[in-house]
Amino acid sequence: IKMHHYLMSWGINVAKNAKFLRDIIRQVTRYTYTTIDIKSRSKVARANGGTCNLQKGSVIWLGTHAFYTILSKKHEVYGTSTLLRSLQFELSLSCNKRLKHRFKKVVKEGLGGVAALDF
Asked: In what residue span(s) does the Telomerase reverse transcriptase C-terminal extension domain sit (predicted)?
């Protein structure tokens, strides 16, 4: 939602900048995984018995799905660009089918909260 508000306040043309925005989404999801991984291996986390068994692919898939879900709520803004199609294509790749099945329940629960969003 923040990204949408930033783009609208900056007056970014989504259709012309779809590749740029897709690259940003990739960077954000990778950064999220890296941050979680680094914090889970920190001295404080280890001292308190903290562990993290997340797989990079899982975090990236969930992040991509979250961006796709939120941005697709604003079809009038993102529907004409290739951004949504690109995200949807990435989610539908055969290598991601296992993740789709694995996180089906998590996604379903998350979509319940998204329905209440009005932005």
From this structure: 13-88
Cα separation, 8 vs 62, whole angstroms? 24
11 class by beta-carbon count within 10 Å (0-12 exposed, 13-18 middle, 19+ buried): exposed
Q: Is the pTM of this model over 0.85?
A: no
Cα 57 to Cα 38, 40, 53, 60, distances in angstroms: 16, 17, 12, 5
Residue range 30-84, pLDDT digits in tens: 999 999 999 999 999 989 998 888 899 999 999 999 999 989 888 888 877 899 9
The DSSP call for residue 95 is: G
Answer whether 59's CB lies under 8 Å from 33's CB: yes
**Alpha carbons 87 and 89: distance in angstroms, whole number:** 5
Instruction: Please provide residue 86's backbone torsions phi and psi, each rounded to the nearest 5 degrees.
Output: -65, -45
Residue 116's pLDDT is 64
